[in-house]
Design goal:
10 helices, 5'-3' RNA exonuclease activity, Pol/His_phosphatase_N, alpha/beta, TIM Barrel, 7 strands, 284 residues, 5'-3' DNA exonuclease activity
């Protein structure tokens, strides 16, 4: 049996378009054997995913934690297999989701100042109740308003990290996120750290400081990393003894990313499982 391990996906509990159970079904259809559900700052989709798992797939439950460095650089941290009952981590995710509301209002205000006919109510119309608010919901509202043709155009023109409309998250530092994930028994993997097309990236020196803070691994194989960036990250993972992962960053119909377009080797996955003490893969 060929193993296909995708450790980075999103459902409509954050900014994807598939229900968690629907995402699991699509993953099974794609031949995925191990799937991580990593919604932004949320574990709300875990139960629905579990209910649709059946026996065909192993679920690796987690979340993608929004972080911000002291220099206001946005960083995302994948937390895998942490204890869902850990209150400090859950409280941090709750606070980040709350902060996203104020952030969105400010971004919409900047777009309005530039003459675009868009309101915060338009954005909320695209948000499923209980889901984590994010820029993809604003992109969907812009599509409905006819400002752009699709999410990709919205991000390419207006919502990327270097845009004058961009406002960073008010969220934990990467060091705090690593600590919270590990105290909850999880494994901390920095997501797409060298994806220069997204905006500013962290330096190798800062990555080393995150290793000292307890970072477990790096997401290397991701569509936003070019070959040079992947090679540089592989060298860093070897130097620091970090787990090397890959993931699709699938969002359903919201992005071009396809399930299992990037995957993780079984040997690296086994390192994750060996380190996790908060939760175990379901179906192993």
């Amino acid at each position: 049996m060929t193993l296909r391990i995708d450790l980075h996906t999103h459902s409509n509990e954050s900014d994807g378009t598939d229900r968690p159970g629907e995402l699991v079904e699509h993953a099974i259809d794609a031949g995925i054997t191990h799937l991580a559900l990593t919604d932004h700052d949320s574990i709300a989709g875990w139960q629905d995913a579990l209910e649709h798992r059946g026996s065909a797939i192993s679920l690796v439950l987690g979340a993608e934690i929004s972080c911000q460095t002291k220099e206001a650089l946005s960083v995302h941290m994948l937390g895998l297999l942490f204890d869902p009952e850990n209150q400090p981590l859950r409280s941090a995710m709750d606070q980040t989701r709350s902060n996203r509301v104020t952030r969105m209002e400010r971004i919409v205000g900047r777009l309005q100042e530039a003459g675009m006919e868009i309101t915060i109510e338009d954005v909320y119309e695209q948000l499923r109740e209980g889901a984590t608010l994010g820029r993809p919901h604003l992109a969907d509202a812009m599509v409905k308003r006819g400002i752009v043709k699709d999410r990709s155009e919205a991000f390419d023109k207006f919502l990327h990290n270097r845009s004058k409309f961009y406002i960073p998250d008010a969220s934990p530092t990467p060091e705090d996120a690593i600590r919270l994930i590990k105290e909850a028994g999880g494994v901390a993997i920095i997501a797409h750290p060298f994806a220069s097309l997204r905006g500013r990236i962290i330096s190798p020196e800062y990555l080393e400081s995150l290793v000292e803070a307890g970072l477990d691994g790096i997401e290397i194989d991701h569509r936003d990393h070019n070959e040079g960036e992947r090679d540089a990250l592989r060298e860093l993972s070897r130097r620091f003894g970090l787990i090397a992962t890959g993931g699709s960053d699938y969002h359903g119909n919201g992005k071009e990313n396809r399930l299992a377009e990037n995957t993780t080797d079984m040997a690296q996955f086994e390192r994750i499982v060996a380190r996790a003490t908060g939760f175990a893969p379901v179906g192993e």
